[in-house]
Amino acid sequence: MMSATCAAAPDNGLPFDPLATTYAEGDSGALTLIRMKDTGELCFLVADNKAQALGMVPYTSRIYDFYLRRDKSGYPPFIFQMVIPMESRGQLDDDLGEWQENFHLLPVYALFDVKTGGQVVCDKPFFSASGLNASHFHARIQNPNHERLIEIFLTHMPRLHKQVRDQSISLP
Known about the structure:
Elements: H1 4-8, E1 16-21, E2 29-36, E3 42-48, E4 53-58, H2 61-64, E5 78-84, E6 98-100, E7 103-114, E8 120-128, E9 139-140, H3 144-166
Antiparallel strand pairs: 1-2, 2-3, 3-4, 5-7, 6-7, 7-8, 8-9
């Protein structure tokens, strides 16, 4: 379930401290690990400057390490929830997930692979479902901004791991 403080962050001015980021000059997308000032909660902030889109995902070690978990069959599907704040209705994917005022809570089902060197490669399309606790994800995510935020989140995670290590940030 999505935490209210993580979902509300962009509306409150910047009530968080950035801890580590993949932002690089000239790159339109970035993944940033943030800590909420009031609760200490960790979240991932996904930004695509080109589309002027934001997404947030609450931190868990399972989400943070998703690309490190490989079983004998390969990498299992990655299922997580992304909050797209300040989104207006009347766009693609409106019937997916759940709405809480102008926050779109979007469950995501993503397939991916990890290449030599740790590069995450997305296997599009991404899928979702109605509601937040779906057992089947048959609806294709069609909004290009949503697709781009998901892609940034997946592909930037190894770089974020490097930044966290380089800055000696201890995570739960």
